[in-house]
Amino acid sequence: MELLGIHHAAIICSDYARSKHFYSNILKLEVVNEHFRATRNSYKLDLAMPDGSQIELFSFNGAPARPSYPEAQGLRHLAFKVKSVAQAKQYLEVQNIAVEEIRVDEITGKKFTFFADPDNLPLELYEV
């Protein structure tokens, strides 16, 4: 497995409008996509950095402050670019790392999956 770089960092915010303003107007990240997901009553905002990496900004009503939950405020997960999610998944499993089933991003059509580091930090493999 060869990690090619960081694809995106996902952040769950406590105040969507304030965070959107901060990342897009103060930090000057380019808004790529903004989606309201009615089934979750939540926003997903994709922000591009100059090197092509992105910040995904999420809003979830009632998300608790982060002690350890994956849907809490703060850094949601770290995603790594890979050529093949299937090959990377197989490599990790050979190393006795539990890896979730491969899914397809409903917006981009790209394959991805999750696993965890020794401290249970959620990590993602995202196919480029």
UniProtKB/TrEMBL annotation:
<dbReference type="InterPro" id="IPR037523">
    <property type="entry name" value="VOC_core"/>
</dbReference>
<dbReference type="InterPro" id="IPR051332">
    <property type="entry name" value="Fosfomycin_Res_Enzymes"/>
</dbReference>
<keyword id="KW-0479">Metal-binding</keyword>
<dbReference type="InterPro" id="IPR029068">
    <property type="entry name" value="Glyas_Bleomycin-R_OHBP_Dase"/>
</dbReference>
<protein>
    <submittedName>
        <fullName>VOC family protein</fullName>
    </submittedName>
</protein>
<dbReference type="GO" id="GO:0046872">
    <property type="term" value="F:metal ion binding"/>
</dbReference>
<dbReference type="Pfam" id="PF00903">
    <property type="entry name" value="Glyoxalase"/>
</dbReference>
<dbReference type="InterPro" id="IPR004360">
    <property type="entry name" value="Glyas_Fos-R_dOase_dom"/>
</dbReference>
<feature type="domain" description="VOC">
    <location>
        <begin position="5"/>
        <end position="128"/>
    </location>
</feature>
<dbReference type="InterPro" id="IPR037478">
    <property type="entry name" value="YwkD-like_dom"/>
</dbReference>
